[in-house]
Amino acid sequence: MGSTAGTLGDKLTRSQVGVHADAEAGLVDFLREANAALSSTSHATSNPVPQTLKRKSIKTRLVDHLSPTKKEPGLPLYDTRRPPSPVARSYQPSMSSLPLSRAPSVLDTAPNMPPPGEDSPSYVPYRRPYSPDRVPGRPYSPTRTSADYARPPASSNMYEPPDLNGSPRPGTPSSRYGGERPGSPKRPLPPAPLFAGGRPISRDSNATLDMSSIPIDHDDPFTEYGDDRPELNSRDSYMTEETITDDYTDMDEKMDHYGPAPETAQPRRGARDAVMTTKEVRLINGELILECKIPTILYSFLPRRDDIEFTHMRYTAVTCDPDDFVDRGYKLRQNIGAPRETELFICVTMYNENEIDFTRTMHGVMRNISHFCSRTKSRTWGKDGWQKIVVCIISDGRQKVHPRTLDALAAMGCFQKGIAKNHVNQREVTAHVYEYTTQVSLDSDLKFKGAEKGIVPVQMIFCMKERNQKKLNSHRWFFNAFGRALNPNVCILLDVGTKPGPKALYHLWKTFDNDSSVAGAAGEIKAGKGKGWLGLLNPLVASQNFEYKMSNILDKPLESVFGYITVLPGALSAYRYIALQNDHTGHGPLSQYFKGETLHGQDADVFTANMYLAEDRILCWELVAKRSEQWVLKYVKAATGETDVPDTVPEFISQRRRWLNGAFFAAVYSLLHFKQVWATDHTIWRKILLHIEFVYQFVQLMFTFFSLANFYLTFFFIAGSLSDKNYDPFGHNIAKYIFVFLRYTCVLLICMQFILSMGNRPQGARKMFLWSMVAYCVIMAYTTFASILIVVKQLRDPKQPKTLGNNVFTNLIISTATTVGLYFFMSFMYLDPWHMFTSSAQYFALLPSYICTLQVYAFCNTHDITWGTKGDNVAKTDLGDAKAKKGNVVELEMPSEQLDIDSGYDEALRNLRDRIEVPEKGLDEAQAQEDYYRAVRTYMVVVWLISNAILAMAVSEAYGGQHISSNFYLKFILWAVAGLAFFRAVGSTSFLIINSIHSIMETKLKWEDKMESKSALSSGKKRFGKGWGNGGGSWWSGSQISSKVSSWAPSSWGGSSLGK
């Protein structure tokens, strides 16, 4: 009491101090009575006082003693805004003059009580029954209060010392188990009481923390520091739109968490750049070959890890030409250890396609390989059939490959960054070869598919060429480098972007297994129509869909019956590897196929250069015409592949330019060398069929050459017939005026087309090309309207004959109906008629554009023999660089001394005085080649244009004033088109019949073989020579089938029944 009065004596009057002392004394008496009353509750008498009344009286007296009294207005108000922390709380009341913000509480201020004395009762803190510091059998009874508790200094020793102040520690339960003996358990330090210092912690914590090392936060509600947060009564209620922490959240986000936006690209969160380290690697025969571990994540979910081909990726830096790959001693994994037989070798060529196109193709290939392994009864395939299949992905140029495609390959384990090198022993690396047997696949949605989805291991070879050297060079790596190392039976060619059907590769391989005389096979290419066929809303996509379908229904089956398919599409085709090999003199299909890669200078004439734009056509011809052989080519309808077609005019024109030029010159080449057929071992019937096909190709070639004149004459005669008063649907000669306008428009369009094609790229003049195609569509629509009107009037006129003969009904109606009707009939025969209803109108509308736009652009660009490669776009460095410094300051090299400037001036004067002759710069070889090609292009375009112009002018002048019924040339054109369509329909029907007979015979032989096998097993006889199943058994080899159908199958006419 004295201390309190002394503390306040310098601030209060004597009367106030007395009143204050009396209040404190009364409060102490009251608390003693309350403590006695509460402690006596456990020893209550038989008539206890009601608990409610006792608590009420205590509360009333507390309010009376603690509340500020009105009798003494001079007493200071206690600070009720924020109670002091228990750590800093003293036995003197705090003083504050701040106004109250709420009703007073018993917890606002601490009571003014004297310090505990020696006779005061000790404080026993509460301990949980199963707390770590309460051990059963050793009750804890502290003898110190929290006020004078002193914890030993921080130490790593968590146990009490054996002695206390130099004397032995009093006996504890632990002394019963050995006391001071070694190994006896020690007593752990007791935890600090609550509020002994620092912020409170969980009493259940197993770790004993040193609270003296943890500072107290300034915003702790139990400290004396306080904070600057506004009071609760000055804030909005939680019922309003703003919460109680909105102000702080906004302030923290704006002031603390966010800073200025970074100026440079930031690394992806969680990504870590690979750390490059220097290692010493021993070269193998002077070549860099590495076995690299696969990533840990990929390794973690692999179903098979029992071989190095699953756990390591092999990298080889190839420093030679593909023709020298085997001779230089390079080997693939299939050649190391126990060599594996390669039955099927798949090539996937890639340029700069994105990851969606790549995964669509690759996932389709892996699904096909899974189908091979599912044929468990086959003698060739089965569970481990994947070991006979190798997939080779060849990328044309390291700088051209799409980065996301490399990421997709890396996800499959077939590629790792940071391994490839540019030079090995000062030798330039030409290709980077990565080998790995992957067990996962990525679909077009970039989702992983593994063994749970039926994916089997696939042997992968990823060849990334250092330079961009065209697709032909990629095939040279495939055939001459890797093919020679593996020596496969069948090679399949695919392009990235083509999605093979689920069984397409099997059907291609089975064609070679059935017929030993087949050297090549072509699959059916389908145009991608988009999701829900929405792509057909684009007229370009729809017209190409119709074109692809009719080619697969009429053209390919016809050529397959003859045994010579003019082109096996690189997007989906297959070859027998032994048939591609050259003879002992080095001449053969592959030598002619790769001849186009080495054409340089003026010696490579424009005819040969354009012919090798479609080098696959040359390969097809060389296979059929191979000396002393009897190879044939087949079309496999069941092997389907879907590819994306161009959907814009520039891409469409650029693609068809190479196709049309290559096809035209390759057809000329095969017709000029048709005598080579007589040097083969084909039968006489096969040679006759091939000559019939040559005649058909010649007729097609002539129609292609004069297609421009034929289109104009057809429009001239049919649309001009409406000028007759008898056929004019408008009256007043309006049809005549429309015809004259469209006639001159057509002529001007053709002239403009030549100018556009010779001076502009489709990408640079896309609008002009587009509007020209629209104008051709209008002309075609009016021509179609005129022909339909003539047919209707012809059928309604009773005077016109309706019989076959020299009349309009026969020459116009029958010929046109025959052509269109055959399209419908053959489409229904092949059970695929939908393109006739969804795409035929778009195709016929764009038919003039196929002739006038595509054909004109192709002939006007015969000098352009490029195929996806760029020119010299390397920056020159012979003049030096101006290196930028700070701001507009650059660093460069230039003569600065006066002597250097004077010497340059003196040299110029000396040269003028002596007049030294400057040697003329010779003509660059590339420039000479380009000039030569342009000159030949000009001659060819002039000849083609004059030929078509002469034909158009001559026929229009000869039959311009005659009636349509007496127009001989129009009748010839219409009936020729109908005749060619009929010829194609006959060949297509023959193909369908032959395939049906083959299927019936195969089914019959399979059933008979199965029945014989069952009867032999039932009788106890075991057969070793025969079997059944998909792909197994002698009936499946093709020799029996060919002999059974020798009277009608074209393959027997070619000698396939003898086998190879």
Question: Which properties best describe this structure?
Answer:
1060 residues, alpha+beta, Spore Coat Polysaccharide Biosynthesis Protein SpsA, Chain A, eleven-stranded mixed beta sheet, two-stranded antiparallel ribbon, 28 helices, 19 strands, 43% helix, 9% strand, extended, disordered N terminus, disordered C terminus, transmembrane, Nucleotide-diphossugar_trans, chitin synthase activity, transferase
Task: Describe the protein's topology.
Layout: H1 2-8, H2 14-39, H3 51-66, E1 163-164, E2 167-168, H4 246-257, E3 289-293, H5 296-300, H6 308-311, E4 312-318, E5 344-350, H7 355-374, E6 389-395, H8 403-411, E7 423-424, E8 427-428, E9 431-438, E10 441-442, E11 448-449, E12 458-465, H9 470-486, E13 490-495, E14 499-500, H10 504-514, E15 518-527, H11 539-562, E16 572-576, H12 577-580, H13 589-593, H14 606-611, H15 615-624, E17 632-643, H16 649-672, H17 684-705, H18 707-720, H19 734-759, H20 766-796, H21 808-829, H22 834-838, H23 840-859, E18 883-884, E19 890-891, H24 898-914, H25 925-959, H26 968-1018, H27 1039-1044, H28 1050-1053
Parallel strand pairs: 5-6, 5-13, 6-12, 15-17
Antiparallel strand pairs: 1-2, 3-4, 4-9, 7-8, 9-12, 10-11, 13-16, 14-17, 15-16, 18-19
